[in-house]
Each structure stands twice: as structure tokens, then as C-alpha cells.
Specification:
By secondary structure, this protein is an alpha+beta fold. It is 40% helix and 23% strand. It has helices spanning 3-16, 23-30, 34-46, 76-92, 99-111, 115-126, 142-154, 224-233, 249-253, 286-293, 303-321; strands at residues 51-54, 60-63, 158-163, 169-182, 185-192, 197-202, 206-211, 239-247, 261-263, 272-280, 297-301. It has a five-stranded antiparallel sheet with strand order 6-5-4-3-7. Helix 1 packs across helix 3 and helix 4 packs antiparallel against helix 5. The termini are far apart.
Length: 327
């Protein structure tokens, strides 16, 4: 690489750090004169890098949005941070793009890493262990994610083609209120204007998004994440459970999160008897959870849960009284 080319790339790196850079500042950093700075800027413009000239007392040069991404200049720590984020994100984090996009982005950055950085990265990966299996949840299509995010931001209604969990397909009109990532999946929550009903849709089941004319008002004080979690807790399952638990909301939430149970929260955080409601497909996992709460509780319904708690208590008592077998 010739020295002028290296300086042009260094100029690009300086501009990518953000803000307006004066010609004098750039000349000082590159150890050249201001006339040469202007020539290097012209080289970047010839390469379709969108460099803007800002006039005025505090003017200079800055990068502007362009029709495509310019060459991206990353420092050593930045390149490692991006690669580790891609690798760890694919293993344990929420999917933000298709697996192919993740792989190609990782490969492109690894291909241009200097050998010293490749050795550092390999040292990290060789010593890194994950406590969970790779995340294989379906990722939403990038076009779907970006279109809905834009509609949320500008409060535009959208039309979507959706495939439900049972395979049924439908066309829906939605006023999208927010995007939520829960347990490795992306959701959009909003309301269907035709029925006025609250809805939550998995983005990986959305096949197409079309922005519609008009706008809508988002309810004040709306919490999209809480809306999604409450929807999970209120989903129609086989058993409806109602409990009274003595304690604070925080103590109850430690074992029964918002995605599982609805806690009727009173004013203040003092211990009191709180009503807790759940809808579950099976009851057998609840007795150990209630025992782990270590708080007084009363089962209002169903009676079947009361029987399961008694059976667990009997097993625990019998185990506590059992003596170890003779050697």
C-alpha cells in the first residue's frame, strides 16, 4: 500500500469517528497540508464515500448518509468487539438477522484481520465456553424487522401476512406499538384497528410487511415489554390458578416472573397478602416453585394443586426422616 493511499484510509477512519473535522485538524493528524487534505477528500468522493463540506467558522468535513456503506475502518479493539459480539450473539443472544448474514459478516471481518489480531481472537475463542446450546430460534427477516421498526417510530399502520402457530395464514392490519425481544424471539405488540383488540405477533412468522397511509396515536404510558409478558401470562391454558402469597412483589417475582404470573400490585412495597394469577398447561411444576418461595401462601384454586402440594410435602417429610442405608 502506498503512503498516500494509507493516509486516505486514515482520513476515512478519522471521519468515521463522528462529528465535523476541520481541515487544520485533519492536516495535523495526517501530517500533511490543508491542500492535500482537500485532495484526499476528493479521492474519497470519487470512491462514492459521502463526504460533506461544512462551511462557516466551525466548518470542515464530515460523513453524510450515502446510498451504500463506505469502507468501514475499525481499530483493533473495535474489530475484536464486533467479532466477539457476532459470535456470542449467535450462540446466546437474540437473533438480529438471518444466520447467513451473521456468518458472512463474521467471515468478512476475519478475512481482513491482521495476524496479531487473529491470534488474539483465536485465543479468546479457544478458552471460551458457553453454558447454553447455540440459539437455533428462527430470526426475523431483515426487511420485516426494519419495516416494522420504522412503522413503530413514525406511528404508521401496517399490513402483514402472518402464519400462526397452528399453520393458519391470514392478512392483518396492525397499529404497531413496540418491538420486544423475549427468550431469543422478536415480537411486535399493538392493536388491530378493525376489532380494537390487543395483539402480539412473532416476527419470524411475518412473511410480508406493507406500510399503509395514515397514522395512529400510541396510548400514553404504554410499556410494550410488559404488554408482551402479560400476554404470555394470560394465554389460554388448561388450568387457571389463583393464589394468595404473603410478601413483596419483588419476592414473588423472583420465582414467578411477569411472563408466567400476574401479580395484583398494591401501592407501596411492604409485605402483604397479594393475589397471584397464572394460566398453565400443567400443575406439577408449581409445588416446588411455591416451596422455593419460602413465603406463606394460600391456594384459592384449583383443588388439584392443593393435592399436589400436600403430596410434595409428604415426600419431603419422608425423605427428611429416612436414614441412610447401612454400609
Amino acid at each position: 500500500m502506498t503512503r498516500p493511499t494509507a493516509r486516505v484510509l486514515t482520513l476515512l477512519e478519522l471521519l468515521q469517528s463522528g462529528g465535523i473535522r476541520t481541515a487544520a485538524e485533519l492536516a495535523d493528524r495526517l501530517e500533511i497540508d490543508e491542500r492535500t487534505v482537500r485532495r484526499y477528500v476528493d479521492h474519497l468522493i470519487d470512491l462514492d464515500v459521502p463526504v460533506e463540506s461544512v462551511r462557516g467558522r466551525y466548518g470542515g468535513y464530515r460523513l453524510a448518509p450515502g446510498h451504500r456503506m463506505p469502507p468501514l475502518m475499525l481499530g483493533d479493539d473495535e474489530a475484536l468487539a464486533v467479532l466477539l459480539g457476532l459470535i456470542a450473539g449467535r450462540r446466546a443472544g437474540p437473533p438480529t438477522a438471518t444466520g447467513t448474514a451473521n456468518e458472512t459478516a463474521t467471515a468478512k471481518i476475519r478475512r481482513v484481520l491482521p495476524k496479531r489480531l487473529t491470534r488474539r481472537l483465536d485465543a479468546v475463542l479457544d478458552s471460551l465456553a458457553f453454558t447454553t446450546a447455540p440459539d437455533e430460534t428462527a430470526a426475523p427477516e431483515s426487511a420485516v424487522l426494519l419495516s416494522i421498526a420504522d412503522a413503530v417510530r413514525h406511528r404508521r399502520p401496517v399490513s402483514i401476512r402472518y402464519t400462526a402457530g397452528d399453520g393458519r395464514r391470514s392478512a392483518r392490519t396492525v397499529h404497531p406499538y413496540g418491538l420486544v425481544v423475549h427468550s431469543g424471539r422478536w415480537y411486535v405488540t399493538g392493536v388491530e384497528p378493525e376489532t380494537g383488540e390487543d395483539r402480539t405477533f412473532r416476527l419470524d412468522r411475518v412473511a410480508e410487511v406493507r406500510t399503509l397511509p395514515g397514522s395512529f396515536e400510541r396510548p400514553s404510558g404504554l410499556d410494550p415489554a410488559q404488554r408482551v409478558l402479560s400476554g404470555f401470562a394470560e394465554a389460554p391454558y388448561r388450568h387457571e390458578v389463583t393464589l394468595r402469597i404473603q410478601g413483596t412483589v419483588e419476592q414473588i417475582r423472583a420465582r414467578l416472573p411477569a411472563s408466567v404470573a400476574i401479580v395484583e400490585e398494591p401501592d407501596g412495597e411492604t409485605e402483604r397478602w397479594l393475589r397471584v394469577r397464572l394460566r398453565v398447561e400443567r400443575l406439577d411444576w408449581l409445588p416446588p416453585v411455591l416451596a422455593s418461595l419460602d413465603r406463606p401462601f394460600v391456594i384459592e384454586r384449583p383443588d388439584e394443586l392443593r393435592d399436589l402440594v400436600v403430596a410434595l410435602a409428604d415426600r419431603l417429610v419422608n425423605s427428611a426422616r429416612r436414614r441412610p442405608p447401612d454400609a
